[in-house]
Amino acid sequence: MSYLAKNYNRKKISFKRGKGAYLFTANGKKYLDFVQGIAVNCLGHSNPRLIKAIKDQSKKLWHVSNAFQIPEGEKLAKKLCKKTFADCVIFQNSGAEATEAAIKIARRYFYSIGKPHKNRILCVKNSFHGRTIAAIFASGSKKMTEGFGPKVSGFDHFSFGDHRSLKKKITKNTAAIMVEPIMGEGGINVIPDFCLRELRKLCNKKKILLILDEVQCGISRSGDFFAFEQSKVKPDIVPIAKGIGGGFPIGAILMNKKVAAGMTPGTHGSTFGGNPLAMAVGNTVMDIISTKQFLNNVKKSSKYFLSNLNKLKEKYPKIIKEIRGRGLLIGIQLYKDQSNFIKKLMDNKLLTIRAADHVVRVLPPLNVKKKEIDQALKIINKVCVELK
Ligand SMILES: Cc1ncc(COP(=O)(O)O)c(C=O)c1O
Q: Band of the pLDDT at 1, cuts 50, 70, 90?
């Protein structure tokens, strides 16, 4: 009997320890983990440098209030700003908090310039921005919001790729457009670079803000530090989480100085956000994953993985419909429901996870080795043969 609430549909398996790309059960069974806590453990399990960072910091200082200076947070914020479009950062603990704060920052900006009526956020229908009360209504998903009324107002929606509807939905009350450059939960749908550029132009023309949710696709997962970088656009606000903590809960919002001006003392806060322990880990993750060499390796692994997955698609044209994604945020779209496929992969010791649209999500650690990709390809091939 479990005393945990039943809000998750958990698989009947647990793990005792992890090392790199692998997870081990109590009785020694070894699984290739291409879920990595859903794009969280960017350096795999038990990374020695992260262990050292947490060990060293845990002996010095775990937590102090944001009422005081936190040098470790200053350091990480500087690294994030030097690397990106951003001028400043607020730290949180999770992705949903970061997206909610992004919404607050957008609204507060218009409030602070005397346009408080500009408070509506335009989002993609059936997108994913987290599970808190405003974030679920931002998603525009019936399934996620059912039973959680009254509806949180202030969100409008357009369908992914429907440019005409997007333009129509912008009103004098719109404050911002918020999209994921690569929809993760939504089925690994990549917004093409030219669309991101058009989106930026549209926001400029309408004098509204662009929020790019990089909680899942950011922090080098796409092969660039941010997935939007290839398009050369500059967003106004970017919520991040997942990878930046390498397994330690960290969220953050990056913003330009224009919008940051509205965030005066007392407008936002978090007890745990940006504490020294979290920041020590975040600084170490950042030092490792943001180098050119690391990013080139992600790109190289991605190219190899995607080209071989496309070969499997050619080989099994009745099973695999499309290979999606960028970097190591990969989706294998099937013609049929993916549950059985995922189960069979797991029976063969490869862990993956579902996304919408019959997609099997494949999320290896960013430092995955070629032999581990080969092992995954072999298992995927075996399962395709079994299902033929
Ligand atoms: C794009 C995106 N935004 C926000 C979130 C919410 O993050 P968290 O689960 O840490 O609250 C997620 C989580 O999957 C996500 O993929």
A: confident
Q: Where are the alpha helices (DSSP H) in 148-271?
A: 163-169, 193-206, 257-260
Distance of alpha carbon 164 from its chain centroid, rounded? 27
- Residue pair 309/239 in contact (Cβ under 8 Å)? The answer is no
Percent of the chain with pLDDT over 90: 99
Whether residue 216 is found in the same domain as residue 327: no
Q: Is the dihedral of CA 45, 46, 49, 53 positive or negative?
A: positive
Residue identifier of the C-alpha nearest atom 4 of ligand 1: 129
Distance 240 CA to ligand 1 centre (A): 9
Strand partners, 355: 359
What would the pLDDT profile of 107-136 be if each residue is shown by its tens digit? 999 999 999 999 999 999 999 999 999 999
The residue whose C-alpha atom lies closest to atom 13 belonging to ligand 1 is 130
21, 371 in Cβ contact below 8 A?
no
Quote the CA–CA distance of 154 and 138 in Å, as a whole number: 8
Quick one: pLDDT at residue 252?
Answer: 98
Residue whose Cα lies nearest atom 8 of ligand 1: it is 95
Residues 192 and 303 in one domain: no
- Confirm whether 194 is domain-assigned: yes
Q: Are 75 and 279 in contact (CB under 8 A)?
A: yes
Residue with tokens 């914020």: 77
pLDDT in tens, 53-100: 999 999 999 999 999 999 999 999 999 999 999 999 999 999 999 999
d(CA 288, CA 264): 33
46 within 8 A of 19, measured Cβ to Cβ = yes
Q: Are residues 196 and 71 in the same domain?
A: yes
The residue to mutate among 124, 129, 183, 240, having the most atoms of ligand 1 within 8 angstroms of its beta carbon, is 129
Residue 346's domain spans which residues?
17-47+292-387
